[in-house]
Write a structure and sequence with these properties.
FN3_dom; Ig_sub2; mainly beta; Titin; structural constituent of muscle; elongated; six-stranded antiparallel β-sheet; Ig_I-set
C-alpha cells in the first residue's frame, strides 16, 4: 500500500505462495549387491539415485537385517559418501539382507529395494561329484540307484542331489528328481520303458549351485531281474529237529528268488495242524507250531516256485513224548489159576519204537498194582484203507445234493476209524451221518452247501500205526465272504484305501471280480463304489470330511454274488495329530553374545513328518516367553544370538508338523550370557609412531579377545636388537601408546606388548620392526579435516580465531599473511610445536578475505589458505548521479557498494533534501539501481542520497555534493544521419521511396521541408511527408518521408522553426 500525506492507499496483493524448501529428497539408489563375502564381513555396492532432488547428495545410509531378526540396524557410523561399503562384525553362517537410502539438503530419501539374502561365510564353490553311484536293483519299469556323499562339499552344506537319466540312443538328459533335488542317497526311478536301455548320473547341490555329475558305470536295461528260487537250510535243519512235547516248533528258512516265489508248506503224512502259523516275506519263511504233541512229528516239506523254476526242501521233526496207552484191552480164557490178556498197540509211539509192554495186576480188595511182567511183546498188522479210484480225483457236488464217501478197512488189531474235514474231526449232525463195520466205513452229507467244500480225510489207527486217506470235495455255489478283516488304510480327509483277502470258500468256481459298496452310518441304503474290482485293493475317493462310513466287499463267481464282508465304522479325518513335545532341552555352550541349544525329537511325530522346531526364550526375571526364530529350525540344535551380556535365560522348544505345533517342552536350566574368563590374547604387533635421539614412541591395538574380562592395561617391554633379554619399560599402562625414553642414540631396538586382565597376563605380542633412536625429519604438513577448509562466517563485532594443527620435524617456522593487511598489527598470532592460530578482535567487513599460513622447516614448505567472511552492514553505494531532470522530477542512478558486508544487498533506500532545508526525506525503498523521484518543486534545488541494506542493516549514505535544479532542460534539434551516407538516398526511377529520418530536440522541434531553397508543401503530386511518434519524455522521434514515382535524385534539408 502506498502512503502520502492524506493517508494509506489501496493495497496490491500477490498470488498465494507456500514457504518450502526448493529442493526435494533424492530418489532411491539401486539395490545393494554383494561383491566380496567372508565369514564375518560382506562388501556391498550400489548406484547413485537417478534424481538428486535438485541438491547435491551429502551421504548414504546403509542398513542390514538378520534373517532371524526383525529390526534394521545401521551399518555405517561415520558419514558414508562412497557407493560401496564393507560391513563387518557379522555372525558366521547367518543370512543378512541390506537396503540403502540417499540424503541431500532436503532430507533422507526412500530406501532402495531389499537386497538378496547373503550368508556370512567364507567363499564357497559347488560340491564335487557324488561317490560311486551304482545300480542296486531293476525291474521291467524301474531302476534303483544308490551313491555316497561327495569327497568335498565346496565349503557349504549339501542341500540335496539331482538324478538325471537318458535313453542310450538319446542325447537329452531328463531330471528324475524335483528341481531342488532330494536329500536321500538312494532313489528308485519308475515308469521306465520295458527293455529300454538307460544311462544315469548324479549331481550334488549346495548354496553355490550344482556340482559335477558322477556317471553310473555302463548302461542299465529296464527288465525283470530273474533268479531261480533258492532255499538256504541251516546245518541244524539238515538233521532231525527234536522238540519236547509242549514246546514250540520254529522252522526259520532263508529264501530268495526273482520274481518273488510262491511258498507252500506241507506235512508229508497228513495236513498241517490248525495250530500251524506261517509267516513269509521275499527273504524268508517261517513255520511256527506252539504246544506241540506227539502227532506233530513227521516230515515237513517246503516248496518255492516262480517262473524261473521250482525248489523244494524238507525238515524231519520228532516230538519227544511217552507212547499213548494200548488199545482194546481184553481178558479171555479165564481159568482158576490163569487168564489170557490181549490188546492193540498204542496209536503213537512217542517218537521212539515200542520196545515192550508192562503188565500189572491188583486184587479187587486192594488198591495197589503189582507187576506181572515188564517185557511182553506180540505181533500186529498196521491198518489199511481201500477206496474207489474215483475218490482220488476231486469230488464235485452241486449245492443241495448229497455227498457220499465210503471205504473198506483192515488191520490187526482192528483199527479205529475217524473222519475229519480240513483237519477238524467231524461231528455227526442231522445232515451228516457216519456209519461203519469191522471192514468198512462211510460218511454221508445231505443238502450240501458251500461250507461243505474242503478236504475230507479217513484215518485208521491201531498199535501198529496209522494211515490217512484224503478226499477233496468241491460244492458248486456262490462264493463265501472275502477273507477279513476289510482293512481301511491311507485315511485322509477325502479318501482311503480298502484291502481284503480272497474268499476261503470260492463256491467251486474262480472269483471273477468284487463289488465294493459304502454306507454312511446315518443312512440305511448302500451305494456302489465300484462294480468290477479285479484286485483285492481299492482306493476310495470323494469322501466327506467328518462323516462316518461302513464299507463292504462281495465276491462274484459264475454262480452269482457272494456274501458280504463289512468293515468297522470309519470316520473320515486327517490321519495325523500334533506331535509330542520335544525332550531333553539343554544349553550346551554359552558366551556373552550367543548360546547353543540342543534337544531330542518328540516320542511321537503325530503321524506326520516333523517340519521343524520353534524356540522360545525367557529372561529369569521376566514373565513373558519370546519367540527366537522366525523360520523353523530343521536340526536338533540351534545357536541363539542377540542375548544380553549378564542376563540369565531359559529356553523351551515346540515341534511342528502338518497338524500344527506340539505342546511346549520342559524348560531348560537357566544360563547366564557371559564369556568364560581367560587371559586375553596378545595385542597386535607394535608400530613405531615417533622417534628421537633418546626415545621411541610405539602404538598398538587391543587384542582380538579380552578373555571375557575387561583389559586393565598393558605391559611394555623392549630390548636391543642383538640382545636376548627383555627389559620392562612399564609394568602397566592403560594407554595404547607409550614412549620408551632413556635410549642410546643410534642404537637399534625392538618392542613387544602384553595385555593384562584380572585373570592374568597374555602372551607377548609379535615383536615390532627394529628402530634406531635418532631424530626424525619430516616435511611440514597441516593436520586438518574437511570442516576446517570451509569458509568461516563471523558476525560484525565478534572475535574469531583461525587454528591450523601441523606436523613437521624439526618444528617449522610459521608465517600468517593477508593481502594488504599487516596481521602483526591487526591480529594476535600464537604458535606451539603442533599448532598455530591467529585471533582478530571485533571483526569488521575489512577482515573478510583469505588468510594464508605458511610452514617452513628446511625439509620442505606447506601453505594453507583459510577463508573468512565477516557479516556486516554493506558499504555505501557508488557512482550516485542524476541522469534525467524535468520541471517536477529527477531520475537517480547508482552502482552497488564495493563491499556487501558478507551478505547480498537486498534493497536500497533513496532520500531527498531541499538545499534550503536540513531534514532528509525518504523517497522510496527499491531493489533496482535506479529510481525516478516525482512531485518535486520546479526551480528548487535538491540534494539526493542512497543507502544500501543487507540482513545486518543499513550502510552509510552516499549523497550528492552539488544540488540539482528541478526544471525542464533545452536541447537543440538534431537529425541522426548515420544511416544516410553523404546525406543521400538512392531510388530506382519510377519507384516509390519511403524512409524514416530520426530526430531529437527539446522542446519538440517544428519540421519543414524545402527543395532548392523553395519550400515543399506537405502534400503534392510528388511528395507526401509528416512527423509522428515524438516522445515528450525522451525527446526523440522520427519523420516519415514518402516520394511517389520520382525520377530524379532529391536532396532535402530540414530546419526547425
Amino acid at each position: 500500500m502506498a502512503v502520502n500525506k492524506y493517508g494509506i492507499g489501496e493495497p496490491l496483493e500477490s498470488e498465494a505462495i507456500i514457504a518450502r524448501n526448493p529442493y526435494k529428497p533424492p530418489s532411491v539408489p539401486s539395490t545393494p549387491e554383494a561383491s566380496e563375502i567372508t565369514k564375518d564381513s560382506i562388501t556391498l555396492s550400489w548406484n547413485a539415485p537417478e534424481s538428486d532432488g535438485g541438491a547435491e547428495i551429502k551421504c548414504y545410509h546403509l542398513e542390514k537385517r538378520d534373517k532371524d531378526g526383525v529390526r534394521w540396524t545401521k551399518c555405517n557410523r561415520q558419514k558414508l559418501t562412497d557407493l560401496h561399503f564393507k560391513v563387518t562384525g557379522l555372525s558366521e553362517g547367518h543370512f543378512y539382507e541390506f537396503r540403502v537410502s540417499a540424503e541431500n539438503e532436503a532430507g533422507v530419501g526412500e530406501f532402495s529395494d531389499l537386497s538378496l539374502f547373503y550368508r556370512a561365510i567364507n567363499a564357497t564353490t559347488p560340491p564335487g561329484p557324488p561317490h560311486h553311484p551304482k545300480v542296486t536293483d531293476h525291474t521291467s519299469s524301474s531302476v534303483s540307484l544308490s551313491w555316497g556323499k561327495p569327497a568335498t562339499d565346496g565349503g557349504a552344506y549339501i542341500k540335496g542331489y539331482i538324478v538325471e537319466m537318458k535313453e542310450v540312443s538319446s542325447e537329452e538328459w531328463i531330471i528324475c528328481t524335483p528341481p531342488a533335488g532330494i536329500q536321500a542317497t538312494r532313489l528308485t526311478v519308475e515308469n521306465l520303458k520295458e527293455n529300454a536301455e538307460y544311462n544315469f548320473r548324479v549331481c550334488a547341490i549346495n548354496s553355490e549351485g550344482v556340482g559335477e555329475p558322477a556317471d553310473v558305470h555302463g548302461s542299465v536295461t529296464a527288465s525283470e531281474k530273474i533268479e531261480a528260487p533258492e532255499i538256504e537250510l541251516d546245518a541244524d535243519l539238515r538233521k532231525v529237529v527234536s522238540v519236547r512235547a509242549g514246546g514250540s516248533l520254529r522252522l526259520f528258512i532263508t529264501i530268495r528268488g526273482r520274481p518273488e516265489p510262491s511258498i507252500i508248506w506241507e506235512k508229508e503224512d497228513g495236513p498241517l495242524t490248525e495250530r500251524a502259523q506261517i509267516e513269509s516275506t521275499s527273504s524268508y519263511t517261517m513255520l511256527v507250531i506252539d504246544n506241540v504233541n506227539r502227532f506233530d512229528s513227521g516230515k515237513y516239506n517246503l516248496t518255492l516256485e516262480n517262473k524261473s523254476g521250482t525248489k523244494s526242501a524238507f525238515v524231519n521233526v520228532r516230538v519227544l513224548d511217552t507212547p499213548s496207552s494200548p488199545q482194546k484191552f481184553e481178558v479171555k480164557d479165564v481159568k482158576k489159576d490163569s487168564v489170557t490178556l490181549c490188546w492193540d498197540p498204542p496209536l503213537t509211539d512217542g517218537g521212539a519204537k515200542i520196545t515192550n509192554y508192562v503188565v500189572e495186576k491188583r486184587e479187587s480188595t486192594r488198591k495197589a498194582y503189582t507187576t506181572v511182567t515188564s517185557n511182553f511183546k506180540d505181533n500186529v498188522d498196521p491198518p489199511r484203507i481201500m477206496m474207489d479210484v474215483k475218490f482220488k480225483d476231486v469230488v464235485v457236488v452241486k449245492a443241495g445234493e448229497t455227498l457220499k464217501i465210503n471205504a473198506d478197512i483192515a488191520g490187526r488189531p482192528l483199527p479205529v476209524a475217524s473222519w475229519s474235514k480240513d483237519g477238524h474231526e467231524i461231528e455227526q449232525k442231522a445232515r451228516i451221518q457216519i456209519t461203519g463195520t469191522d471192514t468198512s466205513t462211510m460218511i454221508v452229507v445231505k443238502d450240501c452247501k458251500r461250507s461243505d467244500s474242503g478236504q475230507y480225510a479217513l484215518t485208521l489207527k491201531n498199535v501198529a500205526g496209522s494211515v490217512t486217506t484224503p478226499v477233496n470235495c468241491v460244492i458248486l455255489d456262490k462264493p463265501g465272504p472275502s477273507a477279513g478283516p476289510l482293512s481301511v488304510t491311507g485315511l485322509t480327509a477325502e479318501e482311503c484305501t480298502l484291502s481284503w483277502g480272497p474268499p476261503q470258500e470260492i463256491g467251486g468256481s474262480e472269483i471273477t471280480h468284487y463289488v465294493v459298496q459304502k454306507r454312511e452310518t446315518s443312512r440305511l441304503a448302500w451305494t456302489l463304489v465300484h462294480g468290477e474290482v479285479k484286485t483285492t485293493t481299492l482306493k476310495v475317493t470323494k469322501l466327506l470330511k467328518g462323516n462316518e462310513y461302513i464299507f463292504r466287499v462281495l465276491a462274484v463267481n459264475k454262480f452269482g454274488l457272494g456274501e458280504a464282508l463289512e468293515s468297522e465304522i470309519v470316520k473320515v479325518t486327517e490321519p495325523y495329530t500334533i506331535p509330542g513335545a520335544p525332550t531333553n532341552v539343554e544349553i550346551t555352550s554359552v558366551t556373552s553374545e550367543e548360546m547353543r541349544l540342543t534337544w531330542a525329537k518328540p516320542a511321537s511325530d503325530g503321524g506326520s513328518e516333523i517340519l521343524g522346531y520353534v524356540i522360545e526364550r525367557r529372561e529369569k526375571s521376566g514373565l513373558h516367553w519370546v519367540r527366537v526364530n522366525r523360520d523353523l529350525v530343521k536340526d536338533l540344535t540351534a545357536v541363539i544370538s542377540k542375548v544380553r551380556r549378564g542376563c540369565e535365560y531359559e529356553f523351551r522348544v515346540y515341534a511342528e508338523n502338518l497338524a500344527g505345533l506340539s505342546p511346549a517342552s520342559d524348560s531348560s536350566l537357566t544360563a547366564r550370557a557371559e564369556d568364560e574368563l581367560l587371559v586375553p590374547s596378545p595385542p597386535t604387533k607394535p608400530k613405531i609412531l615417533d622417534h628421537t635421539k633418546n626415545s621411541i614412541t610405539i602404538v598398538w591395538k587391543k587384542p582380538l579377545s579380552d578373555g571375557g574380562a575387561q583389559i586393565l592395561g598393558y605391559s611394555v617391554e623392549y630390548k636391543k636388537s642383538e640382545d636376548a633379554e627383555w627389559i620392562v619399560a612399564i609394568q602397566m599402562t592403560k594407554s595404547n601408546e607409550f614412549t620408551v625414553s632413556g635410549l642410546t642414540t643410534d642404537v637399534q631396538y625392538v618392542f613387544a606388548v602384553k595385555a593384562i586382565n584380572k585373570v592374568g597376563v597374555s602372551e607377548q605380542s609379535p615383536v615390532s620392526e627394529p628402530q634406531s633412536a635418532m631424530e626424525r625429519k619430516e616435511e611440514p604438513v597441516f593436520d586438518i579435516d574437511i570442516e576446517m577448509r570451509k569458509t568461516l562466517i563471523v558476525k560484525h563485532g565478534n572475535s574469531f580465531t583461525l587454528t591450523a594443527p601441523f606436523k613437521g620435524k624439526p618444528m617449522p617456522s610459521v608465517t600468517w599473511n593477508k593481502e594488504e593487511v599487516d596481521l602483526k598489527a591487526r591480529a594476535s598470532i600464537e604458535t606451539t610445536e603442533t599448532c598455530t592460530s591467529v585471533t582478530i578482535e571485533k571483526a569488521t567487513r575489512n577482515d573478510t578475505g583469505q588468510y594464508i599460513v605458511t610452514l617452513d622447516n628446511g625439509v620442505g614448505t606447506a601453505s594453507l589458505p583459510m577463508m573468512v567472511k565477516v557479516l556486516d552492514t554493506p558499504g555505501p553505494p557508488t557512482n550516485v548521479k542524476i541522469t534525467e531532470v524535468t520541471k517536477d522530477s529527477a531520475t537517480v542512478t547508482w552502482e552497488p557498494p564495493e563491499n556487501d558486508g558478507g551478505d547480498a544487498v537486498k534493497a536500497y533506500h533513496v532520500e531527498k533534501r531541499e538545499a534550503s532545508k536540513k531534514k532528509w526525506v525518504k523517497c522510496a525503498t527499491v531493489k533496482a539501481n535506479t529510481h525516478i523521484i516525482k512531485n518535486l518543486r520546479e526551480n528548487a534545488e535538491y540534494f539526493f542520497r542512497v543507502r544500501a541494506e543487507n540482513h545486518a542493516g543499513l550502510s552509510e549514505p552516499k549523497e550528492m555534493i552539488i544540488p540539482v535544479v528541478v526544471k525542464d532542460q533545452l536541447d537543440a534539434p538534431e537529425f541522426d544521419m548515420k544511416n544516410f551516407p553523404h546525406n543521400t538516398v538512392y531510388v530506382r526511377a519510377g519507384s516509390n521511396l519511403k524512409f524514416e529520418l530520426p530526430l531529437s530536440g527539446k522542446p519538440m522541434p517544428k519540421v519543414t521541408m524545402s527543395r532548392g531553397n523553395a519550400p515543399v508543401k506537405s502534400q503534392n503530386q510528388e511528395c507526401v511527408w509528416h512527423s509522428v511518434c515524438f516522445n515528450q519524455n525522451t525527446d526523440f522521434g522520427y519523420v516519415i518521408i514518402c516520394f511517389k514515382k520520382y525520377i530524379k535524385i532529391i536532396s532535402t534539408s530540414f530546419s526547425p522553426l
